[in-house]
Design goal:
This protein is α/β, with parallel strands linked by helices and 276 residues long. It is 50% helix and 12% strand. The protein folds into two domains: 70 residues, lambda repressor-like DNA-binding domains (434 Repressor (Amino-terminal Domain), Orthogonal Bundle); 146 residues, Endonuclease, Chain A (2-Layer Sandwich), CATH 3.30.870. It is built from twelve helices and six strands. The radius of gyration is 20 Å and the shape is globular.
Length: 276
């Protein structure tokens, strides 16, 4: 009988990957030998990944996606497993983000990753590399993961996205003027998509701003809700409704206080025109 070691997907990114691979395989009624034959690996190798003993390599995850028909889903999760610069909780969140039917974002200081232009994202990651916070390889991995996350939003049907951006997101210059001009242009294009609502929370909100840290809220296909938030050194994926529900409430309050989409787009366009 196959090894039935039970893993807690919250334990580590590697454990989360193993649990998901096993769930996908068993959902198709396949044995480890069946999947091994389709992937060109041994059943022992499959077992090792499923119980968290082996690390899923890019070659392995690409083969698994092809065999299981999961697009680039496992590759995205595998990249998160391999990247030690990614905060705890984020690899698991990336997987859920790729399944979400609704995504709600609040960001301060910089454009949300899902909305970043390639040059803007490269400038953000380049700054972290120059500070010594990450290596060049980790910088490349972050950009590759971001590109995969952005591509996942092109699925059909696409998720509904609501974004409230603090005014600092559009006024804080990242990179040169050309980079900012392109980034704001992309933000305007995203805001005009039928499945996206973008609002600006102006500086004038002051104490009426109901959220004081960046947060992402996701509603999954079964209508369950999760949240993900980061501090400087840690990230937390939360499923407990005792903590998630108040964040949704605060988010809705912030939406009510923020500028309308029309006024928000007007502000973004004006900021773009004012770039020297």
């Amino acid at each position: 009988m196959a090894n039935r070691k039970k893993l807690n997907p919250e334990e580590s990114p590697r454990a989360a990957f193993g649990v998901r691979l096993r769930t996908l395989r068993e959902g198709r009624g396949w044995t480890q030998e069946d999947l091994a034959d389709r992937m060109g690996y041994s059943a022992t190798h499959i077992s090792g990944v499923e119980i968290g003993r082996r690390t899923p390599t890019p070659k392995f995850t690409a083969s698994a996606d092809k065999a299981l028909g999961t697009g680039e889903s496992l590759a995205r999760q595998g990249e998160a497993v391999l990247n030690p610069a990614i905060l705890d909780g984020f690899p698991q969140f990336v997987v859920q983000e790729g399944r979400a039917v609704e995504i709600r974002l609040f960001e301060l200081g910089a454009m949300p990753g899902l909305f970043q232009s390639p040059a803007y994202a490269a400038a953000i990651v380049g700054g972290a590399r120059q500070r010594g916070a990450i290596t060049e390889q980790q910088a490349n991995e972050r950009l590759a993961l971001l590109a995969r996350r952005q591509r996942s939003l092109l699925r059909v049907p696409p998720p509904q996205i609501y974004a409230v951006l603090d005014e600092s997101c559009i006024r804080q210059q990242v990179g040169c003027a050309e980079v900012m001009n392109e980034a704001l242009g992309k933000l305007l294009d995203i805001a005009r998509l039928p499945n996206t609502v973008v609002q600006i929370a102006p500086f004038s909100l002051g104490e009426r701003r109901s959220l004081n840290k960046a947060v992402t809220l996701a509603t999954l296909p079964d209508r369950s809700q999760i949240s993900y938030a980061e501090s400087a050194h840690s990230g937390q994926l939360q499923r407990d409704l005792r903590y998630v529900t108040p964040l949704f409430t605060a988010y809705h309050q912030l939406q009510a206080e923020a500028l309308s989409q029309a006024d928000s787009l007007a502000m973004i366009e004006q900021v773009r025109k004012d770039i020297p």
